[in-house]
Amino acid sequence: MAELLSDEEIDEQLPEGWEREGEEIVRTYEFDDYLTGVAFASEVGELADDEFHHPEIRIRYDEVEVRFTSHEEGGITDKDVEMARECNALR
């Protein structure tokens, strides 16, 4: 099991564009059109499946919101931060 990050560690390690909301980290990516966002969400899904660390993904017309938390640990871990970095790299 991964260890929970402290509030200070989360603040220091949070990737660009990501924010903390309670026990999750969240980022909303913007797109020019719906299908580009859907394609991005699919890439995030493939990445998440490969890493067996699945986010909540919400697709809107020109936005895709991605949320990570480590449910088993009850909050934010290094794995969540790493997955957020990998999502940023897809963009």
Automatic annotation (TrEMBL):
UniProt keyword annotation of Repressor present: no
InterPro entries per the UniProt record, alphabetical: PCD_sf, Pterin_deHydtase
SUPFAM superfamilies the UniProt entry points to: PCD-like (SSF55248)
Molecular function terms, GO-annotated: 4-alpha-hydroxytetrahydrobiopterin dehydratase activity
Enzyme class (EC, first level): lyase
EC numbers: 4.2.1.96
Record field: catalytic activity: (4aS,6R)-4a-hydroxy-L-erythro-5,6,7,8-tetrahydrobiopterin = (6R)-L-erythro-6,7-dihydrobiopterin + H2O
Keywords of this entry: Lyase
Recorded family membership: Belongs to the pterin-4-alpha-carbinolamine dehydratase family.
HAMAP family: Pterin_4_alpha
Protein name: Putative pterin-4-alpha-carbinolamine dehydratase
Native species: Halospeciosus flavus
Lineage per the UniProt record: Archaea, Methanobacteriati, Methanobacteriota, Stenosarchaea group, Halobacteria
